[in-house]
Amino acid sequence: MASSTAQIHLTSSREAPSSAPEPVLSLPRPPPS
Known about the structure:
By secondary structure, this protein is mainly alpha-helical. Helices cover 58% and strands 0% of the residues. It contains 2 helices and no strands. It has helices spanning 2-15, 22-26. It starts with a helix and ends in a 7-residue tail after the last helix. 0% of the residues are buried.
């Protein structure tokens, strides 16, 4: 099941990279207050 989910995630990222959460995670996050 894990590999299945990973495949779908990679496919969706390739189809719509702008919608992928990867770039969001790469952005600098504000420090925890």
